[in-house]
């Protein structure tokens, strides 16, 4: 099972929904921008969710990380993508300074807001992690769900860390800000994920909510 299908199953179990998200703000503070992207000639065109307008995208990320990530899932080959980019709207263009996710199939997703900060998932075996405001839930195929109390996720120098323990479970994770490809879902994410649960290690991808 690929990451995307497992995440959808996890969302249904958590009572989540998949719907249109807010568009990027013309603020000086970079924010997540949600929408569809395509390429016209040498220009990248972004259409925000719940908006019929569009803007050109200027990649200002270090080493052109955004462009590299989008090309990994076929933007340069003419595919239309669902994307989540970090950036600001300035001068009629979306200046993208960071990357969260892109996939060839997908509708606009509601931002996590205060209720959910991160998601992660992996394959072989399939697993999905949701980091909520009160609880962190780990779902694995064929195994009972694991719930641990939520604690603040520390983020420093491109690495997000978390650790919590109950009487029966010790769970910790490390998300590193490096591109992570899920070939089974034809998607690329902005973070790699390593999750340790009771001495067992799971590998996959992570993204911000």
Describe this structure as you would to a colleague.
This protein has 2 helices and 16 strands. With 209 residues, it is mostly beta strands. The strands form 2 sheets. It has a 9-stranded antiparallel sheet with strand order 9-8-7-6-16-15-12-11-10, covered by helices on one side. The longest helix has 11 residues, at 3-13. The relative contact order is 0.18. The model is unreliable at 1-27 (pLDDT under 50).
Summarize the model shown.
By secondary structure, the chain is mainly beta.
Number of strands: 16
Q: Roughly what is the average pLDDT, rounded to an integer?
A: 85
Identify the overall geometry: elongated
Oligomer designation: single chain
What's the N-to-C terminus distance? Answer: 22 Å
Show unreliable segments: 1-27
Strand content: over 45%
Trace the largest sheet across and list its strands.
9-8-7-6-16-15-12-11-10
Helix content: under 10%
Radius of gyration based on Cα positions: 17 Å
Largest sheet: 9 strands, antiparallel
Instruction: Please identify the structural class as seen in this structure.
Output: mainly beta
Number of helices: 2
Order of helices and strands: HEEEHEEEEEEEEEEEEE
